[in-house]
Amino acid sequence: MDKIANFTIKHKKIILIIFILTAAVSAVLQSFVKKNYDMVDYLPQESQSTKALKIMKEEFTESMPNASVMIKNVSIMEAMDYKRQLAAIDGVTQVTWLDDMIDIKQPLEMSDPDTVEKFYKNGNALFSITIRKGAEKKTCAAIREFIGEGNFLAGEAPDLATMQENTVSEVTGALMILIPAVILILILSTTSWIEPLLFLVTIGIAILINMGTNIFFGEISFMTNSISPILQLAVSLDYAIFLLHSFTDNREKYSDVEEAMYHAIRSSIVTVAASALTTLFGFIALTFMKFGIGADLGLNLAKGIILSFISTMIFMPALTLSVYKFIDKTQHRPFMPNFANAYRVLLKLAVPVVLLVILLIVPGFLGQRKTGFLYGNAATAENNKSGQDRLAIENEFGKSAIMVLLVPRGDIAKEEKLTRDIGEIPHVTGVMSYANTVGTAIPVQFLTEDIAEQFYSEHYARIIVYTDTAEEGDAAFATVERIQNTAKSYYGDAAYSLGQSTNLYDMKNVVAKDNTLVNLIAIISIFLVLLFSFRSFTLPLILLITIEAGIWFNLSIPYFMGTVINFIGYLVLSTVQLGATVDYAILLTDHYLVNRRELPKKAAIHKSLGETFKSILVSASILSIAGFTLYKTSSNSASADIGRLLGRGTIFSFIMVLCFLPAMLLIFDRGDCRNNFKTKTAKGKNEGRRIN
């Protein structure tokens, strides 16, 4: 600590230059970091979908359909003309329509009406389109321009294109809302007009470096790119606030500003490190997910916390010492009260809050375990054009999903039986295979190459299955299971399936195991940090119960309201709310232990609430506003759910720490808490030590 403090003070100009140059370079580098928008890429290598996708890429030139186009008020011949023009658009590799399922030269009345109405209904034509991976944004724009305003484009590829278009603008929009709100809170809670800028510059430098150093990962997920800057700002701003407040306090003791900063660094580095560790371990827990998005998010956010800590303890002291005269010249009167008597209100709320917690903790725990999840990122109608088009198509043709089966090639009679059996499964509206489209009597050799390649590769036969379910949900996943089991009854483990419903079904199975593991790792690691910090077994349990109860109440709300949330939002919130808001509990408990050395327990808790209320209020306000800002500005369901849960969860943690925790500290004062008083008192003081 002495070396860090001395080095920072002696070399402040060099430090400023290094950090500013690094941030500038990082700002340039971050534009070259590739963003991955395909969640399927993060499934484990051993998952069925990953294996199927690999086979598809190796064996077939065409991918599976990933978009739908509805053209209104067209005849059969006009629809065929649209099909040809859609197929000619750069990036479109395949267009499937009614003529691929039946002979449209014959009267439609002679064909199966269910098959016909899947592609042509009330004069409206619905085309199934395959858009080349990597060309989604450009190709979807070209399709929309071609079909015009009165027609509709929806599906996985348009959703992805929408996310690509919105990611940068939404992050910018969120920060444009969040930064002014944070500045206002900081102005109200500080006594200098320039202090809020110091906080934001310090963490802003860390955010830029974090985003730029992602270049070493090769690529990051679009979700990580969207939420990590906002979360990093919200959870690490406290570090800078704590250091500057410590510097202000020490200036009252030491006339020399460098000596005051020396003691500020020494007195705050352990506390800031402990605070950073709890958040860090929460993020590291995400890296243990088998679903790779956890490692992507966890590593990036953990790196961000480390960089924020370094920026706070090295860059900020150098910056503060360079501009402290401006801090002095821009002083203003405090706008917030000191909240010394906050305990009078908080302790009145303590009894009803404790009773509510006792009554609701079990239902909250059970409810959050039964919360329903969404696994996809389909655009919703209220968010954007892609969602509105999806709704328009569903209103006309109903919900639909496409699934592809890959089975060993060679036995066409077996393929025909499998095709027939799959067609009889509930919710299956159509099956397209060589056996039922071309016929078993016509050898493949007699067909043109472009037709044959739709159904056969060197080793595999491809069967396309159409269903009337949504891409996910109980009906969709039950249909996927039945189709997979039917295929396995013919081909065993040699049969593979892929498609959005199949991908989401695999995500569901992976996430079910990840959820328990991630939460367990986060709780155990943070418990160990608390155990080391307080040297007590009871105190870590009290603090964890306080925060975990708030998490359970937060995550159980969707269950009791009959709604579902995105599974990534659930997993991230579980670790972020625990890691970020347990600091509030640590701060209050630490003050209570210090005050308890000299005061009776009630007087100690009164004083501790007065001392910490402002700090907790400011921190919780920033974190909650960050969450709700992310919720309001994001069109992606996962990012929006993370924001909503974080905003609401921070409020729960705020209430639990200020109303529930004080009661627990008083109740258990005769337990292990008393052992801490000796530990705290025994610590030596290092005041008065001069800079080397």
Task: Provide key terms for this protein.
Alpha-Beta Plaits, Multidrug efflux transporter AcrB transmembrane fold, four-stranded antiparallel sheet, 692 residues, 23 helices, five-stranded antiparallel sheet, alpha+beta
What does this structure look like?
With 692 residues, this protein is α+β, with helices and mostly antiparallel strands. The protein has four domains: 1-32 and 190-332, Multidrug efflux transporter AcrB transmembrane fold (Up-down Bundle), CATH 1.20.1640.10; 64-160, Alpha-Beta Plaits, CATH 3.30.70; 336-370 and 535-692, Multidrug efflux transporter AcrB transmembrane fold; 391-504, Alpha-Beta Plaits. The chain is 67% helix and 9% strand. It contains 23 helices and 13 strands. Strands 2, 3, 4, 5 and 6 form a five-stranded antiparallel sheet that branches. A four-stranded antiparallel sheet has the order 10-11-9-12, with helices on both faces. The longest helix has 37 residues, at 293-329. It starts with a helix and ends in a 10-residue tail after the last helix. Residues 671-692 have low confidence and may be disordered.
Helices and strands, with pairings:
Blueprint: H1 2-10, H2 12-29, E1 34-36, H3 48-59, E2 67-71, H4 76-87, E3 92-96, H5 113-119, E4 120-121, E5 124-131, H6 136-147, E6 152-154, H7 156-189, H8 195-212, E7 219-221, H9 222-251, H10 257-286, H11 293-329, H12 343-369, E8 372-374, H13 385-397, E9 401-408, H14 412-423, E10 428-432, H15 434-437, H16 449-455, E11 460-467, H17 474-491, E12 496-498, H18 500-534, H19 538-561, E13 564-566, H20 567-596, H21 601-633, H22 637-667, H23 673-682
Parallel strand pairs: 1-7, 8-13
Antiparallel strand pairs: 2-5, 2-6, 3-5, 4-5, 9-11, 9-12, 10-11
Helix pairs in contact: 1-10, 1-11, 2-8, 2-11, 6-7, 7-8, 7-9, 7-21, 8-9, 8-11, 9-10, 9-11, 9-21, 10-11, 10-18, 10-20, 12-19, 12-22, 14-17, 18-19, 18-20, 19-20, 19-22, 20-21, 20-22, 21-22
